[in-house]
Amino acid sequence: xxxxxxxxxxxxxxxxxxxxxxxxxxxxxxxxxxxxxxxxxxxxxxxxxxxxxxxxxxxxxxxxxxxxxxxxxxxxxxxxxxxxxxxxxxxxxxxxxxxxxxxxxxxxxxxxxxxxxxxxxxxxxxxxxxxxx
Length: 133
Hints:
Order of helices and strands: EEEEHEEEEEH
CATH topology: Nucleoside Triphosphate Pyrophosphohydrolase
Strand content: 35-45%
Radius of gyration: 14 Å
Shape: globular
Structural class: alpha+beta
Keywords: Hydrolase, Magnesium, Metal-binding
CATH superfamily: Nucleoside Triphosphate Pyrophosphohydrolase
Number of strands: 9
CATH architecture: Alpha-Beta Complex
CATH class: Alpha Beta
Number of helices: 2
Pfam family, one: NUDIX
Protein name: NUDIX domain-containing protein
GO molecular function: 8-oxo-7,8-dihydroguanosine triphosphate pyrophosphatase activity; metal ion binding
Strand order of the largest sheet: 4-1-7-6
InterPro entries: NUDIX_hydrolase-like_dom_sf, NUDIX_hydrolase_CS, NUDIX_hydrolase_dom
């Protein structure tokens, strides 16, 4: 049976670009978010992870499910899958990389290969709907 990493991510789009974050020591960008703690709901995970990574507060009342994606987990043994529930949501505060994030960037479809495999399907869906250029 394959190992499964259960995550939640924040799809934040501006001007046809998506916000990406690169953790310290990692070689690819990811859609901001992270692993669910035991007993956490999607929105609890989303608000905690985004606060920890980007120092902003997600407004849970505005959260909308974009989709849930599964792929091989980047940097993990073959057969380790990551499942990522993706949400859009408004936020309060100034986007700032926390200590665990080395870099944040606005990414386009051309940056798809600079992201983790699970992000590729998100990029493809957003591009197909005209939301990512």
